[in-house]
């Protein structure tokens, strides 16, 4: 029996929207910086207009807003939200859970940092404010997960956003000063005695 082409097209269209939503949700879950609609559209190979509508659905879904389609099940308000920042979209933990997460990170997570985390933290401390891409360039490795770890530990923070690229610049926090037992970053040891030729991105530090 030949399927009704109209029914088939409607089914494909109805199924495409949820699939697009899940694809974008997966991308945004691992994004460390706000993602523009154009960038998201390129990643999922869909028109920007469709991605814009999908992002709006995700925002409503995460916020627990009842869907306009009565046939769709109601959602609950998540502990995270999809927020537009610096011309892009990124998933953030809701502000009301900040105290809970701070307590969890400081009391439940292991306090010892890996060698990779320590090296990344050192780069940020000496070169701040600095973007994740610049840190990766200096270390010559991907630092996405390490930056997330340092953010989670409260040792670094998002200091500013580059107006042209939308890249987030990171800086250290007062918690790092307390952990190191110093009053300011001026008390960090000079790097010049430790570097033979000032290479690897630290040539401008005395």
Automatic annotation (TrEMBL):
InterPro entries, per database record: ScpB_csome_segregation, WH-like_DNA-bd_sf, WH_DNA-bd_sf
Alphabetized Pfam families for the sequence: SMC_ScpB (PF04079)
Keywords for this protein: Cell cycle, Cell division, Chromosome partition, Cytoplasm
Biological process annotations from GO: cell division; chromosome separation
Protein name in UniProt: SMC-Scp complex subunit ScpB
């Amino acid at each position: 029996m030949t399927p009704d082409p109209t029914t088939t097209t409607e089914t494909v269209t109805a199924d495409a929207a949820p699939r697009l939503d899940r694809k974008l949700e997966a991308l945004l879950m691992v994004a460390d910086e706000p993602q523009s609609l154009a960038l998201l559209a390129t990643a999922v190979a869909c028109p920007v207009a469709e991605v814009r509508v999908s992002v709006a659905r995700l925002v409503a879904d995460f916020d627990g807003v009842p869907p306009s389609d009565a046939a769709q099940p109601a959602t609950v308000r998540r502990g995270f939200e999809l927020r537009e920042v610096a011309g892009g979209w990124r998933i953030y933990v809701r502000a009301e859970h900040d105290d809970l997460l701070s307590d969890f990170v400081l009391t439940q997570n292991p306090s010892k940092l890996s060698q990779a985390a320590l090296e990344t933290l050192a780069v940020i401390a000496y070169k701040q404010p600095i973007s994740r891409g610049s840190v990766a360039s200096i270390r010559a490795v991907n630092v996405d997960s390490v930056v997330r770890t340092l953010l989670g530990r409260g040792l670094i923070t998002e200091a500013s956003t580059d107006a042209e690229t939308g890249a987030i610049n990171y800086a250290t926090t007062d918690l790092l000063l307390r952990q190191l037992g110093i009053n300011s970053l001026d008390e960090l040891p000079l790097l010049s005695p430790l570097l033979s030729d000032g290479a690897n991105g630290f040539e401008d530090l005395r």
